[in-house]
Each structure stands twice: as C-alpha cells, then as structure tokens.
UniProtKB/TrEMBL annotation:
GO terms for molecular function: geranylgeranyl diphosphate synthase activity; squalene synthase [NAD(P)H] activity. Its cofactor is ATP. PANTHER family: BIFUNCTIONAL LYCOPENE CYCLASE/PHYTOENE SYNTHASE. This is Squalene/phytoene synthase.
Amino acid sequence: MAIRAGSKSFFAAGRLLPADMREAAYGLYAFCRLSDDLVDDAASPAERRSAVARLESRIGQAYAGRPADAPADRAFAEIVTAHAIPEALPRALIEGFAWDAEGRRYADLGALNAYAARVAGSVGAMMALIMGTRDPDALARACDLGAAMQLTNIARDVGEDARMGRLYLPLDWMREAGLDPDAFLADPRPSPALAGTVARLLAEADNLYARAEAGIAVLPSGCRPSIRAAGLIYAEIGKVVAAQGYDSVRHRARVTTGRKLALIARALRTPADAAGLGAPPLPETAFLIEAVTAQPFLPMRGRTPLRPWYDVSGRVVHVLDLIERMREREAFGRSASS
C-alpha cells in the first residue's frame, strides 16, 4: 500500500505545506495509515473482513458527528467536516482495503487503475479538498497523482508482495510476456519478462505524473512545492527501479535522503505550468470527482467552531512517529534473523 510504504516521502514533502494545512494533512494521513494497518495486520481472511467492517462503521460514526474515542478518529471527523469531504471518498479507500483483504487480482490495467483510484486517488482528492481546491479538473489531476504513486509502489514491491501471496501486476500483461501468474507467486524470481512488465507499469505511472503537473499549477501557491516534491520523490523511486534493471524481486528501490533534499529544492524553484489541466480524468477515478461536485462546500457560518483536533491527547503525529519506530524495529528484526 502507498499509504504505508510512502510514509517517509509523505512527511518529507508535507513539511513544505502551510502550517494549518500540514496539520490537517497529517491528521488525514494518520487515519488512513492506521486504517491500513488495521486491515493489513489482521492474521486471517476472516479477521481482515472484520477489520474492514469496523472501519466502515468508524467512518459512519465520524460523519454522524460521533467519532470513536481515539485521536485519529476525532481528527478525521473534524477534518472531513471542516473541508466538506464527501463520505464517498474515504469509503472508496476502505473499499480498496477490502479488495486487499480478499486477495483480489487485476485482469488488466483498467482493473488495476480502479484499485489505484480507491487506495490512492481518493487520498489525492481528499488532499486537494484540504488545500481548498474543488475544481473538477484540478481534482482529476490530484487523482492522477495518487494513481501514479500507487503504480510506482506496485512496481517497487513486486517481490515483497509476491512473498506475501499478493499480486498486483495486470494479469494480461504478465501472460503477454510469457509469465504464469500462479507460477510466479509460487516462486518469485527476476526475469527479462518480469522486468519488461515492471517497466511497462512505470511508463504508465510516468504518464500520470506528467498529467498531474497541471493540477499542481492551480493549487494555492503555498501548497505547490509540497505536492510537486511528493510527486518528484515518488517518481524517483521508479528511476531507481529502472537503474536496478527493473528487478523488484531481489531489490527494493530506495531514494536517499540527499536525493530527496535535491528533489525538494527542485520543487521549490520549478515554475507552475497548467497546460493540460482540462484533460479528462481516468475513467476509474471519475466517480470520486462526481462525489465532490455533488457536495458543494458550505462555509461553517453560525456554528460553534470545532475544538482543534491537535488538542486531543496522544496527538496524531506522535502516534505516527511511534508507528514508524515500530516498523523500523520490525524491519531490523526480520533482517537480523534472515
């Protein structure tokens, strides 16, 4: 999942956001990340289905104004209210988690894009709303960026996913390359055929990164460097995969801290270019944009302001820091025992 694997890139780019938007972005990320963990860490298919059902209930509670008594849930409830985020967007995210829970495979690129729309396009659209952007063309480009990041993530994690019994590459592409999906899952190995399939997926991601650039140009000026940096850092992951011969089985691409800093500097000085803003959305993301246009933003006039979510005990960003440290310890433990 991009939400889990992209945490360091997210925080590196998120630091460039204006302070008020950064707090809301981190709060949204906290709920999405913890939701991802809840499903992904379940031990059995039945437990994963139960986790998805609990998440659906928690979203309903948040939108009803009765969030679960947890920092991430209270933050999420206040964020979706303040920024008029349609309920269809986080529910699309949870639907993507449900597809993961059932071990769904994807017959072709369109089916994979439908998955990317849910687990990443939905987050891109929610981030755009936090930044005050509700224009349909800009939202389409935000969904493009989310989908591009997800395709990059899939290309990077082919081997890791296969060793967990998961396969996200389009099945028709694999068969066209002479790869048997079941045989690959049983014994994941690098090959020229697999490298070609990974390269093909990264080419699709690069097309979406290029489309997304126009949307960045119409964001509030203070938000553009952060989102451009996120896109550049994620696209760089694809370049590292390419430099490793598109071997995502024996290697896991990483972008060094120094390279991230260079890309952030590039994002700060890159001029905006809105050419291509009006390109149609991916068919698989159109439902997200339609959900936003059906729910216009209504200013919160005449109502008592919500208590700032960052006043809750256990502050969400602190929770995320703890998660990162636990993940790093788990990764160290696995490497030490191997």
